[in-house]
Amino acid sequence: MLDELAHAGPEHLDPGFVAGFDRKQGRPDPSEDLALLDGRTVVDLGAGTGRFAIAAAERFDRVVAVDVSPAMLAVIRSAGLPNVECVQAGFLTYEHRGEPADAVFTRHALHQLPDFWKAIALHRIAGMLRPGGLLRLRDLIYDFQPGETESVLRDWFDQAVTDPQVGYTRDDLAEHVRTEHSTFRWLLEPMLDAAGFEVLDVQFTGRVYGAYTCQKRV
């Protein structure tokens, strides 16, 4: 089995990195994602510091925040929300208990898995959802052909910030390309189909950031 904690990177175990994580991520607003989801139970895979999970606690009866990093989960636990369960696990090891989830959310975490394991992770996500349940997936996904790689990545790197305390620098983005497992859109979408999902909506920003709303087939 793949070691998901190792693939997540040692910085996710560093309380100093975790303390500045939301700032570096740009403090993403989960309201758009939450507006698309409903039901009683939602699972947040790769929950990080819990920006989505904590906000989801106002909307869902049960929120399961799953992350491989104990340092990340400690931040979520500190919010003291009774309907948020923290589970130290990953895409490949989380075992869902209780009634099937109505929704699964994951943001900028699936790219930590190579494609073989992404396909298995998506199959496992489908297994924890009720029929008709929704997957909201945000990630760094490449919406271009291999021959366009140099020009697209150059444009992406040119938009990077210079201060690593407030965002991702050119070096950060280059390291992502070298060491992470972001995949092409035209590889990911057949994986979603094979896992039993129908893509209801997809939006891309800058040809590298994808947001998918997918429904488990009945």
TrEMBL record:
A GO MF label: methyltransferase activity
CDD domains according to UniProt: AdoMet_MTases
Keywords tagged on the record: Methyltransferase, Transferase
Gene3D superfamilies in the record: Vaccinia Virus protein VP39 (3.40.50.150)
Plastid found in the keyword field: no
Swiss-Prot/TrEMBL GO biological process terms: methylation
InterPro entries (UniProt xref): Methyltransf_25, SAM-dependent_MTases_sf
Keyword Transferase among record annotations: yes
UniProt domain Methyltransferase: residue ranges: 42-133
Protein name: Class I SAM-dependent methyltransferase
Organism this protein belongs to: Amycolatopsis tucumanensis
Lineage summary: Bacteria, Bacillati, Actinomycetota, Actinomycetes, Pseudonocardiales
